[in-house]
């Protein structure tokens, strides 16, 4: 069995079924591994099934609950594709206890003056429209769970605008609005929590592509923030909904 500390079994998410987007690498991969280590059955989602198999194998080799793989290309998937994906989850697991949106795309930095309209639409689709459609498709399954949680990954540039972040920043502002509206619409039931979480600047491939001259070691590894996601997905997050949270000392605050 692996001795990697990120895969140490804890059990805070025991018996929960949790879907993680962007599970191929970076933050999504780290969150998926952390959820599995806490006893969850993780549904790994990214655009290519074969690329997810090493993550699947790592979870399985560590002795954690067997994960599942759900290929979804957020750039090209239609409403029908998201509904079909939710149906697969329903047929397999009959409910969904958690949905974590970690997939993201910020292909470049650009002035609004120069932003190509087709690229704007593509970035908005991946970072805002796709999370909306996936969430909408999964809501019936989340409502079947006794204590379900949706976590939208936020970004500081979606809470305070920053020059050159263009469509990505606009999409993240939209995510905050989507989170707040959905939280209000589901608040009375008390069975579904909806929050956003800004993990801060992390050592990821997306960050490296945007700032190639930056020392990647100047930023923390994504594994350092996964405890905050586990907190929101499990019993520790009960009572929290409609909150724009950030990671501080490993916790969501």
- DSSP summary, beta strand count: 8
CATH superfamily placement? NAD(P)-binding Rossmann-like Domain
- Tell me the radius of gyration: 17 Å
> How many structural domains in the coordinates?
1
Name of the CATH first level: Alpha Beta
Mean pLDDT: 94
Side by side, the strands of the main sheet go: 3-2-1-4-5-6-7-8
Shape: globular
Helical percentage: 40-55%
The fraction of residues assigned to DSSP E strands is 15-25%
Please tell me the CATH architecture by its name.
3-Layer(aba) Sandwich
Instruction: Outline the low-pLDDT stretches.
Output: 1-9
CATH topology: Rossmann fold
Query: How far apart, in Å, are the first and last alpha carbons?
Result: 34 Å
Helix/sheet category: alpha/beta
Oligomer: single chain
Q: What's the main sheet like?
A: 8 strands, mixed
H/E topology pattern: EHEHEHEHEHEHHEE
> How many H/I helical runs?
7
Give an overview of the whole structure.
This protein is an alpha/beta fold and 253 residues long. The protein has seven helices and eight strands; from the N terminus they run βαβαβαβαβαβααββ. It has helices at 26-37, 49-61, 79-93, 117-143, 166-186, 205-210, 226-233, and strands at 17-21, 41-46, 68-71, 98-101, 148-153, 192-198, 244-248, 251-252. The longest helix is centred in the middle third of the chain and has 27 residues, at 117-143. The radius of gyration is 17 Å and the shape is globular. The two termini are 34 Å apart. Residues 1-9 have low confidence and may be disordered.
């Amino acid at each position: 069995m692996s001795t990697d500390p990120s895969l140490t079994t804890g059990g805070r998410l025991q018996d929960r079924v949790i879907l993680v987007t962007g599970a191929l690498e970076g933050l999504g991969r780290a969150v998926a591994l952390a959820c599995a280590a806490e006893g969850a059955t993780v549904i790994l989602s990214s655009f290519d099934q074969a690329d997810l198999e090493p993550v699947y194998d790592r979870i399985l080799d560590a002795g954690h609950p067997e994960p599942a793989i759900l290929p979804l290309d957020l750039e090209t998937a239609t409403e029908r594709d998201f509904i079909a994906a939710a149906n697969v989850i329903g047929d397999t697991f009959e409910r969904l206890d958690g949905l974590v949106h970690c997939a993201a795309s910020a292909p470049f930095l650009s002035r609004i003056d120069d932003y190509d309209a087709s690229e704007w639409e593509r970035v908005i689709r991946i970072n805002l429209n796709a999370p909306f459609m996936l969430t909408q498709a999964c809501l019936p399954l989340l409502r079947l769970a006794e204590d379900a949680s949706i976590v939208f990954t936020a970004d500081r540039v979606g809470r305070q605008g920053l020059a050159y972040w263009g469509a990505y920043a606009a999409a993240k502002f939209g995510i905050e609005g989507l989170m707040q509206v959905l939280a209000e619409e589901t608040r009375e039931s008390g069975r579904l929590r909806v929050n956003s979480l800004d993990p801060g600047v992390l050592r990821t491939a997306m960050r490296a592509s945007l700032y190639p001259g930056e020392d990647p070691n100047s930023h923390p590894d994504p594994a350092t923030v996964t405890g905050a996601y586990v907190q929101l997905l499990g019993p520790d997050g009960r009572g929290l909904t409609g909150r724009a949270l950030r990671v501080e000392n490993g916790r969501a605050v």
